[in-house]
Amino acid sequence: MELVSILNLSYLVASILFIVGIKQLAHPKTASRGNLLGALGMLIAVVATLFDQAILTYDWIIVGVLIGSIIGIILAIKIQMTAMPQLVAVLNGFGGIASVFVAGAALQLSIPKYAFAVNYQEIVSIVFSAIVGGITFSGSFIAFGKLQGFITEKAVRYPGDQLVKILVGLTAVGLGVYGCLVPTDESIYWILSGVSLLLGIFLVIPIGGADMPVVISLLNSYSGIAASATGFVLNNNVLIISGSLVGASGIILTQIMCKAMNRSLTNVLFGGFGAVATEMKDDGDFYSGKVKSTSAEEVAMLLDVARTVVIVPGYGMAVAQAQHTVRDLYQLLTSRGVDVTFAIHPVAGRMPGHMNVLLAEADIPYDRLKEMDEINSTFENVDVVIVNGANDVTNPLAKTDPKSPIAGMPILDVGNAKTVVVIKRSLSPGFAGVPNPLFIADNCLMLFGDGKKATQEMIAALKES
């Protein structure tokens, strides 16, 4: 069998493994297997490509693999599940910059040929890789900075910011067109890459922290699109297919996130929750004299007679790393015959599926996790709802105040339950920067404290009751 046939067959097998792997990632029971299948597909694709390129020496490749493997192992061990959104953002960025460098290297090799005949499919793909890859890299690291706290989570707005983005975007398009018309000028490519990096910064810096789940899924899509464009540059089928899969799935997920927030993608990219946060009145005036504090012992008394309990996880639970303690509370309650479920909002946390991942890590049975649309109609029959660190996704202002920055966003209707217990460090607002009327509702009790410590105290009080 010819080398080309073996190569194409290897790419076909790798592509099938990618598709099957993504399909199996859709359910926790098969997700691990799906991840392994995807990794196997990538291994086959990489090995086949290395043989195809007739590389004279593999020394640097082996060194690169070893360095990358060591970094990957360290990250896998050290990174907490709460920091997974930051890691995803960084990996998206690396995917983008890789496309920029690979396309740039391909341009260097092709410039001598362009003096005689220009391959417009190739040069257009190279230019497209530079634009999308550059935006992905810088945008992802701005997102990482916002998530990690290096950069303010608020939407950074300034007079004329939209005009600046338009001008920088038009500059990138103009350089791209010129690069296609004069492909032998390599300097244009790197100038274009620099402008694209700048555009990525201008696009993401005005987006507030509340929109980060959407931004991360969108940047994930960008990294796939950039990889697919690079596949056209290299005439590499598996790169085209895998990049298209990532790009398409990222766009679909972005649309799901936008729907969950009742906002358009345009509004996310050119709006920003944080832009209005400073205009809201002081939370102290809003809550003054209306909040009912509680204790772990009092909550334990409520849970002792409850028959149905719903736990709502949020980013506060993630920060406190309380998922395992929440599991202990779940097991204690279920051992007493209490029906316990978890209400999951699509944009709770800082990336799509953040709460699902945390609870899966704590071995919470997946059938106990209920999506918002499934559980909202049942809150009226729930004895106790425990909100652990969630804020905006339970805020009634989304339904009652058309001027609120979260107006129209679907929320978990926890206020319909008989009793709501909110575990929170303070009355500080969520990412949207607005107060939460749930905290002063007649059926709401505030248990102030760290999500993990408060849950541990509840467990101890329950065991003594």
TrEMBL record:
GO MF term (any one): oxidoreductase activity
Enzyme class: translocase
Name of this chain's protein: NAD(P) transhydrogenase subunit beta
Keyword NAD: yes
Purpose of the protein: The transhydrogenation between NADH and NADP is coupled to respiration and ATP hydrolysis and functions as a proton pump across the membrane.
Organism: Leptospira terpstrae serovar Hualin str. LT 11-33 = ATCC 700639
Coiled-coil annotated spans: none
Catalysed transformations (reactions): NAD(+) + NADPH + H(+)(in) = NADH + NADP(+) + H(+)(out)
Source organism, top-level taxon: Bacteria
Pfam family, one: PNTB
Keyword tags: Cell inner membrane, Cell membrane, Membrane, NAD, NADP, Oxidoreductase, Translocase, Transmembrane, Transmembrane helix
Family: Belongs to the PNT beta subunit family.
Gene3D superfamilies recorded: TPP-binding domain
Occurrences of domain NADP transhydrogenase beta-like (ranges): 8-460
GO CC annotations, alphabetized: plasma membrane
Transmembrane segments: 6-22, 34-51, 57-77, 89-111, 123-143, 163-181, 187-207, 239-258
InterPro entries for the chain: DHS-like_NAD/FAD-binding_dom, NADH_DH_b, PNTB-like
Membrane-protein topology: Multi-pass membrane protein
Cell compartments where the protein resides: Cell inner membrane
Entry EC number(s): 7.1.1.1
